[in-house]
Design brief:
Length: 587
C-alpha cells in the first residue's frame, strides 16, 4: 500500500506570510493614524517628568473623637481620594499616607489638575436635614426669652426666605419647630441628644412629650446662634458647622445665587450621604440648568420616603429639606409630594461644579476631615535630568545589543533590528493613545520598564535564530529549517513571555504609586513582543529564506554552513548502496 501523502505545507509552517505582514502593517498604520488624528502625538508624562502639584493633607478629628484618626480610616481616605482624582481623568496621581495623620497627594500637570486640587481634601459629608427657618444672611436682633426659656416672638424674628424675600416662620413658630426637633427621634429612631422628653398624660390617657428645661435652654441657645450668625463673613461661614453632629439641629449658611447668602435653622439629619447609591451632574434640558441627580440605596429610599412624606404636609419653610455638604447648604428644595428612589440637587451649578459634586458623592465621603498643610509646585527639572540619564543608559544598552547581533548573527541582525523598530513604533503609539484613553502617564519607572523590554524582545529573536541554526547543523537547507525551527522556538518564546507577563501583572496588583508604571509598561511590551515575533519576525524570516543571499548560506548571512560546522551542501542526500558482487570461486 502506498503511504498517505503528507500536506504540502511545511511542518509547523506558515504558508502565507504576506497575510501576517499585512495585518501588522494595518495595525501600525491605524495606531499611528489614530495618534495624529487625536492630536496626542506624545505620551502623557507623570509628575516626575512633567511637574505638577504636591498637596499635604493633615487629618483633623472632631472634639472627643481623636480615636477616629487610625490606620483604617486613613487607608479608606486614601482610597476615596485616589478614586476621586482618577474619576477626573488625572493620570498617575499618587495618593499615600505619611506618618499617622498625613496624606500626600501628587497630581501631575494636566487639564484637570485644578479640579483635582479642589476635590482631594473635600470631606463630602452629605446630610438631608429638614428646614426649620430661613433668614437673610446678616445678623439680627436675638429673640427675647421668657422666664421659662421659651423664645418670645419679636418683629425682627420674622424672616424672609431666599433673596426673593419669601416669608419665613415667626420666632414662635421657629421655637415650636425647634423644640419638636430637639425632642423628636431622628431617622434612626434614636432621641436627639441635647434634649429629653417627658410624658404628660392627656385626658384620653395618651402621653404627650413636653420639652424639659434642658431642651428649652438648647432651643434658646440655638435660636440665639441663628439670629446672630453673619453668613456674609467667610470666617463665620467656615466655623458655623464645626463640632456639630448629624443627630443635632444646626445652623448653616447657603448661597442662593452668586454673592447672595441665606442662613438656615435645620433639624437633625434624616438621610446621610452613605445612603446615596449613585450621583452625577446632568443638564436639565427643560429648565436649562445643571443639576445633580441621585439614586438612593434601598435603606436610603425608605428614609427619604419617610422624611418627604412628613415634609409634604408642612407649610413653607418647614416643607423644605436642606442638602448640606460639609456644613454648607447647597440646595433647599420644597417638597410637595412623597419621594423615595431618587432626588436631585438644584442650585447655583455650572457644568463643572455639578459634575464635581456628582463625582464626590459617587465615590463617597471621607471618614475624616482634612486641612491642607501645604501645596507645593513640583518642577520637572530633576525628573528631566534623571530621564536624560535613563535614556542615555537605554541607548547604550540598545547599542550594545545591536553590536552583538551584528557581530554574531551578521545578516540575521537586519531582521532583529527591523523587529525592534516595529516593536518601538507600536509601543510609542500605544503609550500616546493610552494617555487620554485610560489616564496612563509615562514616568521614570515606566521608562525603565521599556528599557528592560529591549532585552526581552531581543531574547525572543535569539531563541528563534538559534533554533534555525540547530536545524541547519542537522543537515537541512534553510527553508525547511525555518519552518521546522518555528514550533520549537514558538513554545519557548511563549513560555518565557508568559512568565514575564505574569511577573508584571503581580507587580501591578500588589504595588502602589510609581512602581505600577514599571509593571504596566513591562506587561505591555511583553504582549507586543509576542505580536511582533508572530506577525513580523517569523513572516519576514520565511520570505528572506527564499532569497539567494540567505537561502544559499552566504558567509555574511549568519547562516553560513561552514561557520556552523556543516559541510555543504546543506541538505545531504543518501549515498546509493553499491551492489556487492561475488565472483564464483574457481574449482
Amino acid at each position: 500500500m502506498a503511504a498517505p501523502k503528507k500536506g504540502r505545507g511545511p511542518a509547523g509552517g506558515q504558508s502565507r506570510p504576506g497575510r501576517a505582514l499585512a495585518l501588522i502593517l494595518i495595525a501600525m498604520v491605524a495606531l499611528t493614524g489614530g495618534m495624529f488624528w487625536s492630536g496626542h502625538t506624545t505620551p502623557r508624562l507623570g509628575i516626575d517628568l512633567a511637574g505638577g502639584t504636591s498637596i499635604t493633607l493633615k487629618a483633623k478629628a472632631e472634639p472627643g473623637q481623636e480615636s477616629a484618626i487610625n490606620e483604617t480610616n486613613m487607608n479608606t481616605a486614601v482610597d476615596i481620594i485616589e478614586r476621586r482624582v482618577n474619576g477626573l481623568g488625572v493620570s498617575e496621581a499618587e495618593v499615600q499616607t505619611q506618618g499617622r495623620e498625613n496624606i500626600i497627594v501628587n497630581i501631575p500637570k494636566g487639564t484637570n489638575e485644578k479640579q483635582a486640587r479642589e476635590q482631594v481634601g473635600t470631606t463630602a459629608q452629605l446630610y438631608f436635614r429638614p428646614v426649620l427657618a430661613v433668614a437673610p444672611a446678616a445678623p439680627q436682633e436675638a429673640p427675647a426669652t421668657g422666664s421659662s426659656g421659651t423664645p418670645t416672638p419679636t418683629p425682627s424674628a420674622s424672616t424672609g426666605g431666599k433673596a426673593s424675600g419669601e416669608p419665613s416662620a415667626s420666632a414662635s413658630t421657629q421655637g415650636r419647630a425647634l423644640s419638636e426637633a430637639l425632642k423628636a427621634p431622628n431617622a434612626t429612631g434614636t432621641p436627639t441628644p441635647g434634649g429629653s422628653a417627658s410624658a404628660t398624660p392627656k385626658a384620653s390617657g395618651t402621653p404627650t412629650p413636653t420639652a424639659t428645661p434642658t431642651a428649652d435652654a438648647a432651643t434658646a441657645a440655638l435660636q440665639q446662634k441663628f439670629a446672630t450668625l453673619n453668613c456674609l463673613d467667610p470666617k463665620a461661614r467656615a466655623a458655623v458647622g464645626q463640632g456639630t453632629k448629624p443627630t443635632e439641629p444646626i445652623v448653616a449658611c447657603g448661597e442662593d445665587s452668586p454673592g447672595v447668602w441665606s442662613k438656615y435653622l435645620l433639624g437633625p439629619a434624616e438621610v446621610e450621604g452613605r445612603d446615596v447609591d449613585d450621583a452625577k451632574g446632568v443638564l436639565d434640558q427643560q429648565r436649562g440648568m445643571w443639576i445633580v441627580t441621585m439614586d438612593f440605596t434601598e435603606a436610603g429610599s425608605k428614609k427619604f420616603q419617610a422624611i418627604t412624606s412628613k415634609l409634604s404636609q408642612q407649610a413653607d419653610p418647614q416643607n423644605r429639606f436642606a442638602i448640606v455638604l460639609d456644613g454648607d447648604v447647597v440646595s433647599a428644595p420644597s417638597v410637595r409630594q412623597t419621594l423615595s428612589a431618587s432626588a436631585e440637587i438644584s442650585g447655583n451649578f455650572n457644568q463643572q461644579s455639578a459634575q464635581d459634586l456628582g463625582n464626590i458623592l459617587s465615590y463617597g465621603a471621607l471618614p475624616l476631615s482634612f486641612v491642607t498643610q501645604s501645596v507645593d509646585t513640583v518642577t520637572p527639572a530633576l525628573g528631566s535630568d534623571q530621564l536624560e540619564a535613563g535614556l542615555i543608559a537605554g541607548a547604550i544598552g540598545l547599542g550594545l545589543v545591536v553590536i552583538y547581533l551584528i557581530v554574531y548573527y551578521r545578516g540575521l541582525s537586519f531582521i532583529a533590528i527591523l523587529s525592534l523598530g516595529v516593536s518601538a513604533l507600536l509601543t510609542y503609539a500605544l503609550m500616546s493613545l493610552l494617555g487620554p484613553a485610560i489616564g496612563f502617564a509615562l514616568n521614570l519607572p515606566a521608562v525603565c520598564g521599556a528599557i528592560v523590554a529591549i532585552g526581552i524582545t531581543a531574547d525572543s529573536f535569539i531563541v528563534y535564530f538559534e533554533r534555525i541554526r540547530d536545524e541547519i547543523r542537522e543537515g537541512r537547507s534553510l527553508r525547511p529549517a525555518v519552518e521546522r525551527a518555528w514550533p520549537r522556538a514558538r513554545r519557548t518564546i511563549l513560555v518565557s513571555d508568559f512568565v514575564s507577563f505574569l511577573a508584571a501583572a503581580v507587580l501591578f496588583l500588589v504595588t502602589v504609586g510609581k512602581v505600577k508604571g514599571f509593571a504596566f509598561t513591562l506587561g505591555l511590551t511583553t504582549l507586543l513582543d509576542v505580536v511582533v515575533v508572530f506577525l513580523f519576525t517569523k513572516p519576514i524570516m520565511t520570505l528572506l529564506a527564499r532569497t539567494r543571499f540567505f537561502g544559499e548560506g552566504h558567509r555574511l548571512s549568519g547562516l553560513d554552513p561552514k561557520s556552523l560546522g556543516v559541510k555543504p551542501p546543506l541538505r545531504r542526500s543518501r549515498r546509493a548502496s553499491t551492489p556487492v558482487t561475488t565472483e564464483p570461486k574457481e574449482a
